Amino acid sequence: MATLTTAHSGTTSPADLRADFPLLDQTVNGHPLVYLDSAATAQRPQVVLDAELEFLEKRNAAVHRGAHTLAAEATEEFEGAREAVARFVGARADEIAWQSNATDALNTIAFAIGTASRGRGGEGARRFALQPGDELVVTEAEHHANLIPWQELAAQTGAVLRYVPVDEDGLWTIDELRAVVTEKTRLIAFAHVSNVTGMVAPVAEVVRVAASVGALTVLDACQSAPHRPLELGALGVDFAAFSAHKMLGPTGLGVLYGKRELLNALPPGRTGGSMITTVTMDHAEFLPAPQRFEAGTQPVSQAVALGAAVGYLTDAGVPAILDHEHALAARLYDGLSSIPGLRLIGPGAGVERAGLVSFDVAGVHAHDAGQYLDSRGIAVRVGHHCAQPLHRRLGLTASVRASVYLYNTVDDVDVFLEAAAGIRPYFGL
After folding, report:
1. Measured between alpha carbons, how far is residue 378 from residues 29, 58, 241, 358, 366 in Å?
2. Which residues of the chain have pLDDT under 70?
3. Which amino acids are annotated catalytic?
4. Are 143 and 387 in contact (CB under 8 A)?
5. Domain range list for the chain
6. What is the pTM of this model?
7. Whole-angstrom Cα distance, residue 13 to residue 16?
8. What is the CATH number of domain 51-314?
9. CA nearest 32: which of 418, 420, 377, 402?
10. CATH architecture under which domain 14-45+316-424 falls
11. Of 193, 196, 202, 197, which is closest to residue 174 (Cα–Cα)?
12. Does 290 sit behind a cis peptide bond, omega within 30 degrees of 0 on the bond before it?
């Protein structure tokens, strides 16, 4: 297995790597913190915290606007972060547009298609315009952020929203997707990695199915960009979205990826300053991508921090991170499988899954299970994980999710498993 290492700390093991993350060095309810909620929000290493603070202390200024030295330095660092993120996900810098989060990025695509469907954007935008009866396809496993924007777009345009059903484990197959896609399909939106089941989607096959009917593909990469090597250009998806706060970066920043020619053809759904070339009292013309999707004041210090975060992840070695998480996920799955009264959700033993496991505790509500674990200093996610249709299909209102990242250790997993085994006995079951 590849070994985690960073140039910043010189460490070579997750236990040592943990020292780079100040928040992890604390006790919660009298116990050393075991943080197993990185699928919701990852913690930030000191170098990321330092990068944002240093920018604010020394170079904080408006980007792409002022002519003074600070503005020039701020712009250079801001665009340098864009280039770093683009390299990290296998894209061009002009294919990366800053958004406020991944949800915002997905909405940006939907808004733009809706704008094109209203006849805006000129000749180049007509390729995106939807007509009544056109079809948008999602899966039943999607996060609400990759479902509700398409529901709204369908309602606004008269398009039909169709979905790929999941089985009793919350999984779907490429054959089931093929059965839903028709010649009327104009867009397929799906998660690279499910935030509930940990299922890894067959991206290349989905892209081929979409291409066979001329449909666009939109990839929710929130649970893949932080954890596995990602080459968006090579994958062939048309658009993708991911969030900084899940990959050691700050909140308030997301990334919209789009093929250059598509971004430049899409009309912006949001308008204002910073994204225009010419404005008169009755007309405006817009900059090329990515600036055409970046109206208003930008999240500059957050972008700088994300640039530092992808530098840290690159130094640690993304293939090594993936290997490490696979090992921990297998330990999580095997350990939870041996505990009576737990129902595990997602791929079974021997099938690839991301570094997370969701489960239901018989006779104990997920929130109560989470509070018990919290009393032991263990942070997990409880609830429907912004995936109510999936939970409804599974016959659940909520589940418990434990997720790992590069700073988690075997000891973290073992402490969690020992506590998980005590949930039902604690409640007298």
Report:
1. 9, 38, 29, 15, 14
2. 1-3, 5-12
3. 386
4. yes
5. 14-45+316-424, 51-314
6. 0.95
7. 5
8. 3.40.640.10
9. 377
10. Alpha-Beta Complex (3.90)
11. 202
12. yes
